């Protein structure tokens, strides 16, 4: 079956760095996405990785290792507004998104 | 970037009534639209995939006679929750993609449904 695992909840301090891991097993692979979702809102796109390696975009970076079925989202210089759920999703061979349960990130002052 | 709208953003209805939710792609033609449902503290669950001009493909466990999906044009898909019950209360989110970029889904803002 298809499976995506990520931690349920993480806590970090404002100004610090946090890494959210995601492991996956899917039928086919057409890329891995990270989305941010604030409570009561729809997900917003953060990053897309289809090749191995690190993609950096401002304070956020995303890493992918296809051989290990592993990705992480790295958030630097954390701000209070980064408190949200972070969803890992893999696009399978049918171009459908398989979603993880999300990681709730709590930022403390 | 591509914009997807949903209407209404909030709806409260009585048990037994039907509710229609619209999903529109505002600046592109969406060959495929997806309907998701999200319960509190859970991830998105794909309900169905609809391609313009054809019948929607429903995920296992989703009743197609209860959740009617119509994708009549390249910019509009509708989800009708028929005979809604309190357990149908949820956050319904649509997304859309166009043929030239199958890896990208653009999400609508979501519709929160509360059935009393």
Shape of chain B: globular
Tertiary shape of chain A: globular
Distance, first to last CA of chain A: 40 Å
Q: How would you name the oligomeric state of the polypeptide chains in this document?
A: heterodimer
Following the backbone from N to C, one meets helices and strands of chain A in this order, namely EEEEEEEEEEE
The averaged pLDDT of chain B comes out at 91
Helix share of residues of chain A?
under 10%
Number of helices of chain A: 0
Amino-to-carboxy terminus distance of chain B? 37 Å
Helix content of chain B: under 10%
* Backbone structural class of chain A: mainly beta
Report on the structure:
The complex is a heterodimer of chains A (109) and B (116). Helices cover 0% and strands 57% of the residues of chain A. With 109 residues, chain A is an all-beta fold. In chain A, the strands form 2 sheets. In chain A, strands 2, 4, 5, 9, 10 and 11 form a 6-stranded mixed sheet that branches. A 5-stranded antiparallel sheet of chain A has the order 1-3-8-7-6, with no helix packed on it. The model of chain A has no long low-confidence stretch (mean pLDDT 94). Chain B is mainly beta. Helices cover 0% and strands 51% of the residues of chain B. In chain B, the strands form 2 sheets. In chain B, strands 2, 4, 5, 6, 9, 10 and 11 form a 7-stranded mixed sheet that branches. A 4-stranded antiparallel sheet of chain B has the order 1-3-8-7, with no helix packed on it. In chain B, a hairpin with a 6-residue loop joins β4 (32-38) and β5 (45-51). Chain B is globular, with a radius of gyration of 13 Å. The mean pLDDT of chain B is 91. Chain A binds chain B through residues 30-31, 40-45, 48, 50, 87, 91, 95-97, 99-102, and chain B through 34, 42-46, 49, 91, 93, 102-105, 107-110, 112.
Which terms summarize this structure?
heterodimer, A: five-stranded antiparallel beta sheet, 0% helix, 57% strand, globular, B: 116 residues, mainly beta, four-stranded antiparallel beta sheet, 11 strands
């Amino acid at each position: 079956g298809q499976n995506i695992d990520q931690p349920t909840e993480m806590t970090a301090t404002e100004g610090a760095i946090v890494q959210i891991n995601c492991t996956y097993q899917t039928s086919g692979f057409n890329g891995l996405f990270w989305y941010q979702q604030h409570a009561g809102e729809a997900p917003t796109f953060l990053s897309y990785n289809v090749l191995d390696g690190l993609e950096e975009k401002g304070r956020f970076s995303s890493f992918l290792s296809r051989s290990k079925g592993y990705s992480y989202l790295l958030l630097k210089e954390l701000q209070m507004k980064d408190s949200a759920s972070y969803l890992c999703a893999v696009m399978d061979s049918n171009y459908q998104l398989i979603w993880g349960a999300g990681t709730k990130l709590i930022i403390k002052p | 970037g591509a914009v997807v709208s949903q209407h209404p953003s909030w709806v409260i209805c009585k048990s037994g009534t039907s509710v229609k939710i619209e999903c529109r792609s505002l600046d592109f033609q969406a060959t495929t639209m997806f309907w998701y449902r999200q319960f509190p503290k859970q991830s998105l669950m794909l309900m169905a995939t609809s391609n313009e001009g054809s019948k929607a493909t429903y995920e296992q466990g989703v009743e197609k006679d209860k959740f009617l999906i119509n994708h009549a044009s390249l910019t509009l898909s509708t989800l009708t929750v028929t005979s809604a019950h309190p357990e149908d209360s949820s956050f319904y989110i649509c997304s859309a993609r166009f043929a030239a970029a199958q890896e990208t889904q653009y999400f609508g803002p979501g519709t929160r449904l509360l059935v009393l």
